[in-house]
C-alpha cells in the first residue's frame, strides 16, 4: 500500500496516469482530501480518476487533461485551463467561487453536481457539454442551493442538457449574472422551488433542444432570450425582455401572453398563439409600441392589397403574419413566399397572386384554395387529410413540385391545374403510404411519381369525370397504384419522351388519351370502357391487346400512329376490340401498322387512314375480317407480307398503293381509287380484277406502268392518267365511263374480254383502240380516238347507236356492226379504211381537211355520207 503524506499542492507528472498510483505524481505523493492537485500532463496524456477521490482543489493546466471515470469531489476551487473528459461526475462542495478557467468540457459527459448554499461560476468559464446535466444537489446537502453564473454554460444534450434540483424539499436558485450565458436543451428549473434570475444586464438565456419547457424567471424578466428549440415552446406569462430571438426552424407559442421588448425583436422562426377558443390576442411591444399582434392559432389573416414578401408583417392587415396554424388569405395582391413557410390553410382570392419563391416551399397542413394565380418555381407541400386542393385558379406560372404527403387526400372538382413541373406522392416525408383522389383536372408537363417507392406505396384515384394528363412515365413502380375506371374520367399520356403507360387496377381505363410527340407503349393488356383517343404521337401496343366497347369512340388525329404487334414476336394483337364502324374516326393522315411476325387478323370495321402491313424476317399473312377494306390514306404492303381476305369484296383506297409484298386479288374483287389528290401505285403492280376510278375534286390515279385489268374498268369520277410514258391498258371486261375522265396520252387500250361494253354516260377519249376479244364488244357510249381503231380477226365490234370519232385509221380484221352509229374521220390529214373488200357504215362523216382513203373494193353507206369542206374521199390509202 502506498504511503500518503498530506501536503498543500501536489503536481502530476507530464505523462500522468491513474490518480491512485504514486508514479502519476511528482515526488510520488498522491493528493489527499486536504490537498490541492495540479494536473500538468502534456498532449496525449491524462490523469485518470479511477477511484473515488476527494480533494480541496484541482487545477488543470493549459494543455493538460483530466479524465473523470470515477467520482471526483472538490471542496474548494476547480480550475480548468486545459481539458476535462470522462463519463463520471464532478461534485463541487465548496463555497464562493467553485468553478473557474476557460478550458474545454466538450468530451465530459458526466454530471456537474453543485452542493453548497452559495456557489459562484467565474466569468472565465466557457463550458460546452454534449452530455450530462448540472445538478443542484439539495438532497445530499439537506438545504437550499444558490449558484451564480458569471461565465458561459452550454448544455446541448436533448435528454440531459439541463439544470435540475435533486429534491423537492429544498429550493434551488440559479442567477445568470451580468453578461453571462446559459443554453439548455432539456427541461430545466422545473421544480416549484426552483428560481431563475435572468434580468442582469447583458446576460442571455437560450432554450434549445427538442421537448423543453420555457421557464419563467423572477419578475418574468429576461435580458436576452433566444428560442432555438426544434419543437414549439409555450410562454407561461407575459415576459419583459431587452431582446428576443426566435431562430429559424423554431416556434414560440405565446399562449395568449405578450412580449414587452426594449431592444431587438428578431423572429426568422415562427410565432404563434393559443387555439381560437381563447379570445385574447398576444402582442409584441418594442420600446412601448406594438410591432406585432399574434392572434389565436387558426386565425384568418388577410393580406393588404400590395406586393411584397410574406414575412414582412406590414403586408398583412393588423401586422399579423400568418403562423403555423393560421389561415392566410391572399387578397388582391402579389405575395411572395421567400423563406420556407408553413400554415394551416391558404386562400388565394380571385385576381390575387401567390408567388412561391424559387428554391423555397409553402407547406399547407389542411387545404389550399386557389381562385387566383400561383406562380414561380417554389414547391408546395400538402400534408392534410381530406380535401387539400380546391379552386379553379391558374397554376401555369408555377414550375415547382406539388407534394402530396397524406394517407387520404382529395383534389376538389373545382381544381384546374395546368402547369409545368411534376406531382410527387411524397411517401418519404412522413414515412406513410400516400393516397390521392382526383376529382378535378390536372395537366402536367412532367410526371406523377412516388419518391419512396422502395418502402411505401402510393395510390392515385381518378374519380368520376376527373382528368389527369402526364408528360412522362408516371406511377412507374410496382408499389404505385392507379384507379382509372370511374365513369367519365380521362387519363392522358403526353410529353416528348418515350415511356410505358401505367396499367390501372383491373387493367381498366374509362377514357384513355395519347397526346405525345413520341411513343407511348403498353406493358400489358388493357380495357378501355369508353373512348380511346390518339391525338398526338404513337400508341405502341407491342404484343398486348386493347379491348374497347361498342358505345365509346376510337379516334386518331392527323399524324398519329397505332402499332399492333412486334416484328420480332409471334404474339398477335389485333385492332382494338368491340369498337363499331359508327364510333371509329381515323384521320386520313393517321397510320395503323399491323406488324406481328405471324398471321394476323386485319379488321375491316374501321375506315383506315394510312394502313401499313408488315412482318419480320418470316413471311406472314394479314387477312381481313370482312370482304371489304377501306383506306382513306396510303396502303403499304411491306416485303414478306401478304394481304388477303377481301375475296370478291372491295378495297377502297384514297392514297398511294405501295405493294412490296403480295396483294391477293380474287375473282370478283374490286379495287376503288377514290382520293382527292394524285394517287399512284408503286412496287409490284397487281393485276386488278375490277378497277374503279372514283376520285373526288381534282383527284386522279396516275398509271405507274401498263395495267392489266382482268375484268372491268370503271371511271365514275376523277381521272385515270396514262401519263407521258404512254402506259397501256389491257382490259378483260368492260370499260365504262359514267362521269370521269380518261387521259390516254399516247397509249393503247386493248379490250380482250368475252362480251365487254365500251363506253358509258360520258364520252371516252382514247388514243389507240384494239378490239381483241373473240366475242362481241358493244359500245355503251360515244368514243373518240386520237389514233387507230383495230378490230382483230375473230373479234366483233358493235357500234350500236353511238358516235365514233376516229383520228387515225380504221382496220377491220374481224366484224364491224355499224347499226345506227355515226363514224367521223377527223384527222385533218390522211386516214385509211382497211380490212375487208366491203365495209359498211351507217352514217359516215369526213371532217374538214381530212383525206379518207380505203383499200376496200366498196364502201356501203346505210345512212348519210357527209364530206365537210376541205374533206376528201379517195379510192386508195396513201
List keywords for this structure.
disordered N terminus, 13-stranded parallel sheet, mainly beta, 878 residues
In short:
The protein is mostly beta strands and 878 residues long. It is 1% helix and 45% strand.
Walk me through what this model shows.
With 878 residues, the chain is mainly beta. 1% of the residues lie in helices and 45% in strands. It is built from 2 helices and 105 strands. The strands form 17 sheets. It has a 15-stranded parallel beta sheet that branches. The longest helix is centred in the first third of the chain and has 4 residues, at 138-141. The radius of gyration is 51 Å and the shape is rod-shaped. Mean pLDDT is 91; it is low at 1-6 and 275-279.
Q: Would you report the number of β strands? A: 105
End-to-end gap: 158 Å
The number of helical elements comes to 2
Radius of gyration, whole Å: 51 Å
Note the beta-strand portion. Answer: 35-45%
Low-confidence residue ranges: 1-6, 275-279
Which of globular, elongated, flat, extended, rod-shaped describes the shape?
rod-shaped
Residue share in helix: under 10%
Estimated structural class: mainly beta
Mean pLDDT: 91
Largest sheet: 15 strands, parallel
List the SSEs and their pairings.
Blueprint: E1 9-11, E2 17-18, E3 36-39, E4 47-49, E5 53-55, E6 57-60, E7 65-68, E8 72-74, E9 78-80, E10 83-86, E11 90-92, E12 96-100, E13 104-108, E14 112-114, E15 119-121, E16 126-129, E17 134-136, H1 138-141, E18 145-149, E19 152-155, E20 163-165, E21 172-176, E22 181-184, E23 194-197, E24 204-207, E25 224-227, E26 233-234, E27 239-241, E28 243-246, E29 251-253, E30 259-261, E31 265-266, E32 270-272, E33 282-286, E34 289-294, E35 300-302, E36 307-309, E37 327-330, E38 334-337, E39 341-348, E40 353-356, E41 361-370, E42 373-375, E43 379-382, E44 386-390, E45 402-404, E46 409-411, E47 416-419, E48 423-425, H2 427-430, E49 434-438, E50 441-444, E51 448-450, E52 458-462, E53 467-470, E54 480-483, E55 490-495, E56 499-500, E57 508-509, E58 511-521, E59 526-528, E60 532-540, E61 546-547, E62 554-556, E63 561-564, E64 584-586, E65 591-594, E66 600-602, E67 607-608, E68 610-613, E69 620-624, E70 628-631, E71 635-637, E72 641-644, E73 650-653, E74 657-659, E75 662-663, E76 670-673, E77 678-679, E78 681-683, ...
Parallel strand pairs: 1-3, 2-4, 3-6, 4-7, 5-8, 6-9, 7-10, 8-11, 9-12, 10-13, 11-14, 12-15, 14-17, 15-18, 16-19, 17-20, 18-21, 19-22, 21-23, 22-24, 24-25, 25-28, 26-29, 27-30, 28-31, 29-32, 30-33, 35-37, 36-38, 37-39, 38-40, 39-41, 40-42, 41-43, 41-44, 43-45, 44-46, 45-48, 46-49, 47-50, ...
Antiparallel strand pairs: 33-34
Amino acid at each position: 500500500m502506498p504511503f500518503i503524506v498530506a501536503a498543500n499542492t501536489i503536481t502530476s507528472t507530464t505523462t500522468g496516469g491513474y490518480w491512485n498510483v504514486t508514479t502519476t505524481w511528482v515526488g510520488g505523493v498522491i493528493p489527499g482530501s486536504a490537498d490541492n492537485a495540479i494536473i500538468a500532463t502534456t498532449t496525449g496524456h491524462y490523469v485518470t480518476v479511477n477511484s473515488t477521490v476527494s480533494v480541496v482543489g484541482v487545477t488543470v493546466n493549459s494543455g493538460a487533461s483530466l479524465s473523470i471515470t470515477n467520482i471526483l469531489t472538490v471542496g474548494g476551487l476547480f480550475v480548468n485551463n486545459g481539458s476535462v473528459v470522462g463519463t463520471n461526475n464532478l461534485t463541487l462542495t465548496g463555497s464562493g467561487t467553485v468553478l473557474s478557467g476557460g478550458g474545454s468540457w466538450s468530451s465530459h459527459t458526466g454530471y456537474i453536481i453543485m452542493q453548497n448554499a452559495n456557489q459562484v461560476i467565474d466569468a472565465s468559464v466557457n463550458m460546452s457539454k454534449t452530455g450530462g446535466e448540472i445538478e443542484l444537489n439539495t438532497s445530499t446537502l439537506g438545504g437550499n442551493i444558490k449558484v451564480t453564473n458569471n461565465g458561459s454554460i452550454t448544455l446541448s444534450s436533448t435528454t440531459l442538457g439541463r439544470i435540475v434540483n435533486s429534491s423537492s424539499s429544498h429550493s434551488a436558485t440559479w442567477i445568470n449574472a451580468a453578461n453571462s450565458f446559459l443554453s439548455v436543451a432539456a427541461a430545466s428549473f422545473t421544480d416549484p422551488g426552483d428560481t431563475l434570475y435572468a434580468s442582469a444586464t447583458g446576460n442571455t438565456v437560450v432554450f434549445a433542444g427538442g421537448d423543453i419547457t420555457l421557464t419563467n424567471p423572477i419578475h418574468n424578466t429576461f435580458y436576452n432570450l433566444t428560442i432555438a428549440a426544434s419543437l414549439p415552446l409555450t410562454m407561461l406569462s407575459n415576459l419583459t425582455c431587452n431582446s428576443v430571438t426566435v431562430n429559424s426552424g423554431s416556434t414560440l407559442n405565446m399562449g395568449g401572453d405578450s412580449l414587452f421588448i426594449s431592444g431587438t425583436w428578431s423572429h426568422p422562426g415562427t410565432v404563434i398563439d393559443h387555439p381560437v377558443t381563447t379570445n385574447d390576442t398576444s402582442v409584441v411591444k418594442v420600446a412601448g409600441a406594438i410591432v406585432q399582434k399574434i392572434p389565436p392559432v387558426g386565425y384568418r389573416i388577410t393580406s393588404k392589397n400590395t406586393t411584397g414578401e410574406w414575412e414582412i408583417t406590414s403586408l398583412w392587415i393588423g401586422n399579423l403574419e400568418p403562423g403555423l396554424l393560421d389561415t392566410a388569405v391572399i387578397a388582391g395582391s402579389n405575395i411572395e413566399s421567400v423563406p420556407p413557410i408553413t400554415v394551416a390553410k391558404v386562400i388565394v382570392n380571385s385576381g390575387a397572386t401567390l408567388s412561391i419563391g424559387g428554391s423555397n416551399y409553402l407547406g399547407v397542413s389542411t387545404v389550399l384554395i386557389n381562385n387566383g394565380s400561383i406562380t414561380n418555381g417554389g414547391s408546395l407541400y400538402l400534408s392534410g387529410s381530406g380535401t387539400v386542393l380546391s379552386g379553379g385558379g391558374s397554376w401555369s406560372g408555377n414550375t415547382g413540385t406539388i407534394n402530396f404527403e397524406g394517407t387520404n387526400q382529395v383534389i376538389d372538382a373545382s381544381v384546374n391545374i395546368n402547369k409545368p413541373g411534376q406531382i410527387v406522392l411524397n411517401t418519404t416525408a412522413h414515412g406513410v403510404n400516400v393516397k390521392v383522389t382526383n376529382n378535378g383536372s390536372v395537366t402536367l408537363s412532367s410526371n406523377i411519381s412516388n419518391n419512396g417507392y422502395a418502402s411505401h406505396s402510393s395510390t392515385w384515384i381518378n374519380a368520376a369525370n376527373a382528368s389527369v394528363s402526364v408528360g412522362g412515365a408516371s406511377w412507374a413502380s410496382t408499389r404505385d397504384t392507379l384507379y382509372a375506371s370511374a365513369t367519365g374520367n380521362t387519363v392522358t399520356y403526353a410529353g416528348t419522351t418515350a415511356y410505358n403507360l401505367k396499367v390501372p387496377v383491373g387493367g381498366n381505363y374509362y377514357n384513355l388519351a395519347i397526346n405525345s410527340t413520341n411513343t407511348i407503349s403498353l406493358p400489358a393488356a388493357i380495357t378501355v370502357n369508353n373512348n380511346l383517343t390518339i391525338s398526338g404521337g404513337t400508341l405502341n401496343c407491342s404484343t398486348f391487346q386493347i379491348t374497347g366497347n361498342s358505345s365509346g369512340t376510337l379516334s386518331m388525329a392527323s399524324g398519329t400512329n397505332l402499332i399492333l404487334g412486334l416484328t420480332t414476336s409471334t404474339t398477335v394483337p389485333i385492332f382494338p376490340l368491340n369498337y363499331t364502324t359508327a364510333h371509329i374516326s381515323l384521320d386520313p393522315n393517321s397510320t395503323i401498322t399491323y406488324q406481328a411476325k405471324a398471321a394476323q387478323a386485319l379488321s375491316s370495321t374501321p375506315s383506315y387512314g394510312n394502313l401499313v402491313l408488315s412482318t419480320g424476317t418470316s413471311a406472314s399473312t394479314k387477312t381481313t375480317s370482312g370482304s371489304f377494306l377501306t383506306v382513306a390514306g396510303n396502303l403499304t404492303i411491306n416485303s414478306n407480307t401478304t394481304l388477303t381476305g377481301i375475296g370478291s369484296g372491295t378495297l377502297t383506297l384514297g392514297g398511294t398503293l405501295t405493294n412490296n409484298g403480295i396483294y391477293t386479288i380474287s375473282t370478283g374483287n374490286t379495287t376503288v381509287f377514290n382520293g382527292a389528290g394524285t394517287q399512284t401505285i408503286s412496287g409490284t403492280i397487281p393485276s386488278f380484277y375490277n378497277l374503279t376510278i372514283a376520285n373526288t375534286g381534282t383527284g386522279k390515279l396516275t398509271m405507274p406502268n401498263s395495267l392489266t385489268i382482268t375484268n372491268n374498268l370503271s371511271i365514275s369520277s376523277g381521272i385515270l392518267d396514262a401519263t407521258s410514258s404512254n402506259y397501256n391498258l389491257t382490259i378483260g371486261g368492260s370499260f365504262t365511263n359514267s362521269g370521269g375522265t380518261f387521259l390516254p396520252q399516247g397509249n393503247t387500250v386493248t379490250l380482250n374480254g368475252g362480251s365487254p361494253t365500251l363506253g358509258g354516260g360520258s364520252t371516252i377519249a382514247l388514243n389507240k383502240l384494239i378490239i381483241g376479244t373473240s366475242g362481241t364488244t358493244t359500245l355503251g357510249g360515244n368514243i373518240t380516238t386520237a389514233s387507230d381503231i383495230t378490230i382483230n380477226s375473230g373479234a366483233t365490234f358493235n357500234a350500236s347507236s353511238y358516235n365514233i370519232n376516229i383520228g387515225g385509221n380504221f382496220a377491220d380484221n374481224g366484224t364491224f356492226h355499224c347499226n345506227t352509229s355515226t363514224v367521223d374521220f377527223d384527222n385533218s390529214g390522211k386516214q385509211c379504211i382497211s380490212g375487208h373488200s366491203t365495209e359498211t357504215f351507217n352514217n359516215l362523216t369526213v371532217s374538214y381537211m381530212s383525206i379518207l382513203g380505203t383499200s376496200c373494193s366498196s364502201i356501203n353507206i346505210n345512212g348519210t355520207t357527209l364530206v365537210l369542206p376541205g374533206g376528201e374521199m379517195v379510192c386508195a390509202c396513201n
